[in-house]
Each structure stands twice: as structure tokens, then as C-alpha cells.
Design a protein that fits this description.
4-stranded antiparallel sheet, about 25% helix, elongated, Homing Intron 3 (I-Ppo) Encoded Endonuclease, Chain A, alpha+beta, about 200 residues, 2 domains, Arc Repressor Mutant, subunit A
Length: about 200
């Protein structure tokens, strides 16, 4: 992809963005200066939308939305090298919330003292089992996020049950398990595998 490939920004037809994150005026060709949000560290630009109002936009999201395929419909954009000022398409990837947070810890973008957030990240990455109190069936998942996706809830659903409700709600029980126990569940499965999940009959 050439550096001079420019694409018009949806709902901001006065402007174009390049893969290296430059934003320019279609009419004048003038490049719009990037400012840095001191609190969050991201680059941002102020653009006038087709609605006539000014909006603050993040160049890395503009680049991702226009140049980076997103077949899984992910919502977050990750800076691969951890540098929030490196907004070139080669340094961006679509990501889940939990993976983005995990990457932020690994690259030092989030300090380790954020224990509460760190705990949420860890929960998103560890196996769990979910019991339906209605049917008594037990489902094994390789992560809490996977469990939430399977049952059609927001990605933090299973983590919230463990963290805030002592592992139990009216309809479900959720328990953290070891990777060893998860592997045992896979090895001993009694029914067919369903997408992203091992479903087993187990005594309540």
C-alpha cells in the first residue's frame, strides 16, 4: 500500500486520511496538525463534520477503519509496538478489549498498580466453567470472555459474576478453573463439541 494512498473520511468528506495517519483537507491539500491528548496519550485531530459541527477524532482509529480489514467486527484498535504516536497502519491491529488491556500491561502502557483492572484482564484469560441452574448442564470455556460470547452477553458478563456476585446469579454459576482442569474436560468430553466451547453433562 503506497504512502500516497488517501481515502475520504466517512461523515467528514472535507478530509482524507493516509495509511501513515496524515489527515489533510481535500480542498486545500493542507495537512491537519495532530495534537496529543495529555491524559490519554493518543494523537487527535479536530475536524468539521458534514453536519457542520467540529469533532475530535483519533487518527489511529481513522486509519484502522479505512485501511485495516476487520472481518471479526472487533471494536478496539491496538498499537502493536506500544507507541500511541505510531499510528501507521503497519503498527495497528483490531483487538478485543481483554487482549488490548493485556497488551497494555505487557508493553507498560498501563502500570501494574492498577490491580483491579489487572484482575479483570487475568479473569478474561483464564478458563472457567458455567453451570446453568435451569438445566443443570455444565459448560467449559477457555476464557471468561468466551463464555460471555457463547451465551450472548457483553464480554464482561462472566467476569462480573465472579468478581461482584461471588460466582452465582439467579440463572448461572461461574467458577474459575485451572488450565489443567479445562484440558481434562476436553479430553473427557461426553458430547459433541460446539463452537468455542466444550459442553458436558455433569452432576449438579
Amino acid at each position: 500500500m503506497g504512502a500516497e494512498t488517501w481515502r475520504t473520511i466517512p461523515n467528514f468528506s472535507r478530509y482524507e486520511v493516509a495509511p501513515d495517519s496524515r489527515v489533510r483537507s481535500v480542498k486545500t491539500g493542507q495537512t491537519i496538525k495532530h495534537m496529543v491528548n495529555r491524559r490519554l496519550g493518543y494523537s487527535q485531530v479536530t475536524l468539521t463534520g458534514d453536519d457542520g459541527r467540529k469533532h475530535t477524532k483519533k487518527p489511529h482509529r481513522l486509519v484502522a477503519e479505512l485501511f485495516l480489514p476487520n472481518p471479526d467486527g472487533l471494536r478496539e484498535v491496538n498499537h502493536i509496538d506500544g507507541n500511541k504516536q505510531n499510528n501507521a497502519v503497519e503498527n495497528l491491529e483490531w483487538s478485543t478489549r481483554s487482549a488490548n488491556l493485556h497488551h497494555a500491561y505487557a508493553t507498560g502502557l498501563r502500570p501494574r498498580e492498577h490491580a483491579g483492572i489487572k484482575h479483570m484482564v487475568e479473569l478474561a484469560c483464564v478458563p472457567c466453567k458455567v453451570m446453568s441452574k435451569t438445566s443443570g448442564r455444565v459448560f467449559y470455556f477457555k476464557s471468561h470472555t468466551e463464555a460471555a460470547n457463547y451465551f450472548g452477553y457483553a464480554h464482561g458478563w462472566a467476569k462480573d459474576i465472579v468478581s461482584r456476585f461471588d460466582g452465582e446469579t439467579r440463572h448461572f454459576k461461574v467458577k474459575r478453573i485451572s488450565k489443567f482442569e479445562y484440558q481434562q474436560a476436553i479430553n473427557a468430553r461426553k458430547v459433541a463439541t460446539v463452537p468455542m466451547n466444550i459442553e458436558m453433562e455433569e452432576a449438579a
